[in-house]
Write a structure and sequence with these properties.
Elements (H helix, E strand, L loop, with lengths): L1 H25 L2 H4 L10 H5 L4 E4 L5 E2 L2 E2 L3 E3 H5 L14 E2 L6 E6 L12 E2 L2 E6 L5 E8 L6 E8 L5 H19 L5 E8 L19 E8 L2 H10 L12 H10 L1 H4 L6 E7 L25 E3 L5 E3 L10 H10 L2 E8 L3 H8 L5 E6 L6 H13 L1 E7 L4 E6 L13 E3 L6 E10 L8 E9 L6 E7 L4 H4 L13 E4 L2 E4 L3 E2 L5 E2 L31 E4 L3 E4 L7 E2 L5 E2 L19 E2 L9 E2 L3 E2 L5 E2 L20 E4 L2 E4 L18 H13 L6 H5 L4 E5 L9 E10 L2 E10 L6 E5 L3 E2 L5 H44 L29
Parallel strand pairs: 8-23, 10-11, 10-13, 13-16, 16-17, 38-41
Antiparallel strand pairs: 1-4, 1-5, 2-3, 6-8, 7-9, 9-21, 11-12, 12-15, 14-15, 18-20, 18-22, 19-21, 22-23, 24-25, 26-27, 28-29, 30-31, 32-33, 34-35, 36-37, 39-40, 40-42
Helix pairs in contact: 5-6, 5-11, 7-9
Length: about 800
């Protein structure tokens, strides 16, 4: 027995597992597996997650249960995953927009001189999140490209020997650079430190300075040597110098230095001391951060100097790096061996910076500059400026002979050769989940040219951008319908915004309920006419059978009685050709241009059959021609015109002519009366004798009375003679005396009647009470006798001294 019980239990377990397996075969995978896209409730949120797609179908259900709209793309595409019962075929949104790339400016690369080194120059991209955007950027190092070299030197006393050597080597430096390019210019500036304590001795006769611009960029090497030679050296108190603040001015003072827009910009920074950084200015009471702006002014002697040393702190490494990149500079730190490690560490933090080692007297400055320039010009590093919402990756085959690798740098390139970078842009996310625009700039480090990419990112689904003012009816008047669902107003909820928020979860007062008003809340009538489900006791969700439609506030309408077209097998040939009206008796309402019982036949294009003979207007100017027949308009009062050509007016339009013709009354003058298109005949009796006859009436004042007169008007044919009743039905004037007398008499009679009724009722009541008293007295039973405790109210006393008849 126990063994049999165990076998039954085991059989039941396997039967349960088999049932679950069968159920899983017919359930959408979004209900049976973990959905990595679930939790996103709007289309734009869903599509911002890579690999997700959105179903915008209005009723996305499975066995009556609402499915998650946001699902992985492969779930929608796989053949074995059928989102059953209500599939999303034709309503799947995979992306907010198709990616487009448009090249706006694409000038050819130059060969020599100041030609273009980058192409294309301008691109416009329209895309959406998580979509890779691929394009190419080509770079060519042009031979003979202009070079601007600005030499900025530390002129503290320890650098005196280096200054003198630079004077002697100025011509050699210019000649060496002209061997590289014929278009070469050079300039000179110097720095020491802030001329305030504790950085410098403010009491010395010749005060030091932080930065001085001695010579604007020029081709004159002799003037360069003279300016270097005439620049004095100074002492300062601490070891670090203010070189970075001077470097900031050399970078940002474009006009004062003379930087050209189409040149390779080099700065030679020569020093033998470390540098001050942001925050060191607090030692002198300076707390205002460096503003990364040019503050070089010209004094009375024509020299340029930096004047904000007392107010601005030293710049940070990040500020220097940003301005070097923004102005496309290359900085070469020429320092002695003792400072190489210090400035190599700095160069690693600055974009486009390198370090060269000087001898103690700077005798190798020419070779150092030439060697560093060759290293710079033989390599290219492509970088960009973009926001945190965008990721950029590069690849190139410049170093692998045809096999691309992920890199943004190419070394060993020759002048005149072309390097191609494959660039991929991916928008990672959208700020505030809305559309945005961005400009991305791609540029080689140290080259003052950019490729501008205008990025137009569409984050919202198209169905979220439409005008939603006409879709509130889809959401019980308390929300907007978009992308297959309702976005409810505050305090409303439900799939159709049918429920009002709060603890009570009251029905939405704007919704119409689930039963017509005349049915009330009785249980004898089903909700939603028995053809839908009632949601929140406020709105009906109608259930339509396949191929048919049930609709209406209470699911009271259907198209079951309307014919199906034999051509396309749709009710009334589909919504583009006709509709089945609610309570229309199964007759299709055809759209203009269609006819037939199921609107299956196209109407003829000719309108000849809508013109009445002798009249140039379609349908007599009182209707429109549809399928060769006139559809007549209605008057302001709602009365329609009739006839094959809408030539027969309604009764009210004939009234004035009848008055004029029959009785010479009404608003028409005699001249206007002759224009009436019919005559009248006075008859004693008005009655309908033919098909289409209609008795019409009008009222006019006659003999002191208001009288109703009648005439016959045929709605099917305009008669030339209209019968009019010769006598009207007049109302007699009221008899005021009779009315007053009658009302007064009625009031008096009613009063007397009420008094008589009162008297009768009170008499009857008194008699009943008296009869009851007598009856109660007769029924009373008690013995007759004297009350034992009763005492007489009088007492008799005898006078003992009194003797009857005695005398004195």
């Amino acid at each position: 027995m126990l063994l049999l019980f165990k076998l039954l239990v085991l059989l039941g377990f396997y039967l349960f597992k088999w049932t679950e397996a069968q159920r899983s075969d017919i359930m959408p995978r979004s209900l049976s597996e973990k959905n990595r896209c679930i939790g996103y409730t709007t289309c734009s949120e869903c599509l911002q997650l890579a690999g997700c797609a959105w179903c915008s179908k209005k009723n996305f259900l499975n066995n009556g249960k609402t499915l998650a709209r946001c699902n992985p793309v492969d779930w929608f595409n796989s053949n074995d995953d059928h989102l059953l019962e209500e599939s999303c075929s034709g309503s799947i949104i995979y992306s907010t927009i198709n990616t487009t790339i448009e090249t706006i400016k694409d000038e050819a690369l130059g060969q020599e001189g100041s030609g273009n080194q980058l192409k294309p120059q301008k691109i416009l991209v329209k895309t959406s999140p998580h979509k890779p955007v691929n394009f190419q950027i080509k770079f060519r190092r042009v031979s003979g490209y202009p070079v601007d070299l600005y030499y900025i030197m530390d002129l503290s006393t320890s650098m005196k020997a280096s200054k003198e050597k630079l004077v002697n080597l100025a011509a050699s430096l210019a000649d060496a650079m002209r061997n590289i390019t014929t278009d070469f210019r050079m300039g000179f500036g110097s720095f020491i430190d802030k001329p305030i304590s504790p950085f410098a001795n403010e009491m010395q006769p010749l005060k030091p300075y932080l930065f001085r611009h001695h010579m604007k960029l020029s081709k004159d090497a002799t003037t360069f040597a003279l300016q270097v030679n005439s620049a004095p050296t100074f002492d300062n108190l601490d070891s670090p110098e203010g070189g970075l603040e001077a470097l900031m001015q050399a970078v940002v003072c474009t006009q004062e230095i003379g930087w050209r827009s189409n040149s390779h910009r080099l700065i030679i920074f020569s020093t033998d001391a470390p540098y001050h950084l942001a925050g060191d200015g607090k030692l002198a009471g300076i707390s205002l951060p460096n503003d990364e702006s040019c503050h070089v002014l010209q004094d009375g002697d024509g020299r340029f100097y930096y004047d904000h040393f007392r107010w601005l702190d030293y710049p940070s490494m990040a500020q220097i790096s940003r301005q070097i990149a923004n102005n496309s500079m290359n900085v070469i730190f020429a320092v002695p061996g003792s400072m190489v490690m210090t400035y190599r560490d700095l160069s690693l933090r600055l974009l486009g910076a390198s370090v060269g080692e000087l001898t103690n007297d700077s005798a190798n400055i020419v070779a150092l500059v030439q060697d560093q320039y060759n290293k710079i010009s033989s390599s290219v590093k492509l970088t960009h400026r973009a926001s945190e919402y965008v990721s950029v990756s590069y690849s190139s085959s410049c170093s692998t002979n045809g096999q691309p690798i992920n890199t943004n740098r190419c070394d060993g390139i020759k002048t005149g050769s072309t390097v191609t970078f494959d660039v991929t842009i991916i928008v990672k996310s959208c700020p505030r989940r809305s559309n945005f625009e961005e400009v991305i700039e791609f540029f080689p480090v140290g080259v003052n040219e950019v490729v501008t990419v205008g990025l137009d990112v569409i984050c919202q689904c198209p169905c979220e951008e439409k005008d939603q003012s006409t879709t509130r009816s889809e959401c019980s008047g308390a929300g907007q319908y978009m992308c297959g669902y309702c976005v409810c107003d505050p305090d409303f909820s439900g799939s159709s915004c049918e429920c009002e928020g709060g603890n009570a979860r009251k029905p939405n007062p704007l919704a119409k309920g689930c039963k017509p008003p005349h049915q009330g809340n009785t249980s004898s009538f089903p909700n939603c006419s028995g053809r839908g489900s009632c949601i929140c006791d406020a709105a009906c969700n109608c259930h339509s059978p396949p191929g048919r439609k049930v609709w209406g506030d209470y699911c009271e309408c259907d198209d079951f009685a309307c014919p199906v077209s034999p051509i396309n097998e749709q009710v009334c040939s589909g919504p583009e050709q006709g509709t089945c009206p609610c309570n229309g008796g199964g007759v299709c309402e055809c759209k203009p241009g269609w006819q037939g019982n199921s609107c299956q036949t196209k109407c003829p294009k000719s309108q000849e059959t809508c013109y009445e003979s002798g009249i140039a207007q379609v349908c007599s100017g009182r209707g429109t021609c549809n399928c060769g027949k006139c559809l007549c308009n209605k008057t302001k009062d709602g009365d329609p015109y009739t006839g094959n050509f809408c030539e027969i007016p309604p009764c009210k339009e004939l009234k004035e002519c009848v008055q004029c013709k029959a009785f010479k009354t009404g608003p028409l003058a005699e001249y206007d009366c002759r224009g009436c298109e019919f005559d009248v005949s006075l008859v004693k009796e008005i009655k309908e004798t033919k098909e289409g006859d209609q008795i019409c009436s009008f009222q006019q004042y006659q003999d002191g009375l208001y009288c109703n007169f009648f005439f016959i008007h045929n709605r099917l044919k305009m008669e030339s003679v209209i019968p009019v009743g010769e006598k009207g039905e007049c109302s007699e004037p009221p008899n005021v005396i009779a009315i007053v007398s009658g009302v007064s008499g009625a009031i008096l009679a009613i009063g007397l009647l009420l008094l008589l009724l009162w008297k009768i009722l009170t008499t009857i009541h008194d008699r009943l009470e008296y009869a009851k008293f007598l009856r109660d007295r007769e029924l009373a039973k008690w013995p007759r006798g004297e009350n034992p405790i009763y005492k007489q109210p009088t007492t008799v006393f005898l006078n003992p001294a009194y003797t009857t008849g005695s005398e004195n």
